[in-house]
């Protein structure tokens, strides 16, 4: 059965206009963002992400007048990021029609903002962009061991790169209306057995793992070395496993395992096969 991937365009704003960038630098003006929203509404995309790439850099908040115009023309779920630093700003975004707030700079400058937002609006409204890890930039080479020791004393662990099992990524699972199972629990089990358990295992290349809760494929399980995706069947929720996927310079869809897996046998059996 073919499952259509979700279409989630991202509109980048700068000085009130729609722009195209190269790694968020050197913005090239494309036109009026309202026109783009109308086009994507007519195309019936699944969701629309709007990001103001200058707001945080310029130390200003969201352009609510423009965002209200965007929300009035959008007939799909909306998310917004850029310059959100207070709960009041997030509340105003939700009021005018946005469903999610994306945090990046504020997540580092004010980590308590996540707690405040979650307590007031529920954790499903907060989408941090740091995924499963944080990068600490600028540690001098001669102080790396000291930093590792400092982190270990506080429950933090260094080491998410290199030719090894990478940190496991997963969607939010049952907190999403489409989630079929507890992706976080499965990801945690894989994390403990293979990210931590295989820490000293040398691999030919990096090995990425993704755990998705449904065929919408938000975390792209089929484009990871090892991916799990929930499927609903007459017998209940089963799991499609993908092996050998990759994306980046070269993209390859992972090979789907020829049968669906049951939950209890999923993690140990399939990861053993992937490692042999």
How would you characterize the overall build of this protein?
By secondary structure, this protein is of the alpha/beta class. The chain is 30% helix and 21% strand. The strands form 2 sheets. It has a 7-stranded mixed beta sheet with strand order 3-2-1-4-5-6-7. A 5-stranded mixed beta sheet has the order 8-9-10-11-12, covered by helices on one side. A hairpin with a 2-residue loop joins β1 and β2. The longest helix is centred in the C-terminal third of the chain and has 14 residues. The model has no long low-confidence stretch (mean pLDDT 82).
Total beta-strand segments: 12
Which spans of ≥5 residues are poorly predicted at pLDDT below 50? none
Q: Characterize the biggest β-sheet.
A: 7 strands, mixed
Order of helices and strands: EEEHEHEHEHHEHEHEEEEH
Q: How many helical elements?
A: 8
In short, what is this structure?
This protein is of the alpha/beta class and 276 residues long. The protein has 8 helices and 12 strands.
List keywords for this structure.
276 residues, alpha/beta, 7-stranded mixed β-sheet, 5-stranded mixed β-sheet, 8 helices, 12 strands, 30% helix
Secondary structure elements and pairings:
Elements: E1 10-14, E2 17-22, E3 25-31, H1 33-42, E4 48-52, H2 64-73, E5 78-81, H3 87-96, E6 100-103, H4 105-109, H5 112-121, E7 126-128, H6 144-153, E8 169-170, H7 183-196, E9 209-212, E10 226-233, E11 236-243, E12 255-256, H8 263-275
Parallel strand pairs: 1-4, 4-5, 5-6, 6-7, 8-9, 9-10
Antiparallel strand pairs: 1-2, 2-3, 10-11, 11-12
